[in-house]
Amino acid sequence: MRYNATRRAVATTVAAFDEMGLVHDAVVRHPFLDPAVQAALAGVLADRPGLRRHELLTAASAGILPAVVTDLHPKARFDEAFIRPATARFIRRAPDPDHLPPGVDVRALRRFWAANPLSTRTAPLIQHLWSQQPENLC
Asked: Residues near 124 by Cβ (< 8 Å), separated by ≥ 6?
């Protein structure tokens, strides 16, 4: 966890989340990048060293996280926790070019989403576009 917290890619991701949050007057964080969550995981590991990942997540989340995140899978499928059926339906719709950041090629984005329907590489952009839809506002 210490190593990942200092990686440039992680710092860039957190900075992008901060920028997106400013646009929407919100705090945007991936739970595993939150210092409090990292501290909780470290605390569980200190008390119970040697836990497997799913056991650690289950113990640290105390049943708060859904089973798709904490259950053991024969192959890691982390994207499924983020790209759910509703998200897949949403990205099939044409994105409104007025809501895209400057420089985003709409056709290239649609091709990417068609070829990579479960990719989280554009998750912040998906969340940004979703929040721009009037029906999704609280």
From this structure: 16, 17, 20, 28
Domain ranges of the chain: 75-138
- What is the full DSSP assignment across the chain? -HHHHH-HHHHHHHHHHHHHHHHHTS----GGGSHHHHHHHHHHHHHSTT--HHHHHHHHHTT-S-HHHHS--SS--GGGGTS-HHHHHHHHSPP-GGGSPTT--HHHHHHHHHH-TT--TTHHHHHHHHHTSGGG--
Residue 83 burial (10 A CB sphere; 0-12, 13-18, 19+): buried
User: Taking Cα atoms as reference points, which of 82, 57, 52, 79 lies closest to residue 67?
Assistant: 57
pLDDT tens per residue, range 30-45: 777 777 778 888 888 8
Q: How sure is the predictor about 89, in pLDDT bands with cuts at 50, 70 and 90?
A: confident
Residues near 76 by beta carbon (within 8 Å), at least 6 away in sequence: none
Q: Which residue in 70, 21, 5 sits closest to 44, CA to CA?
A: 70
Structure tokens given for 64:
């708060």
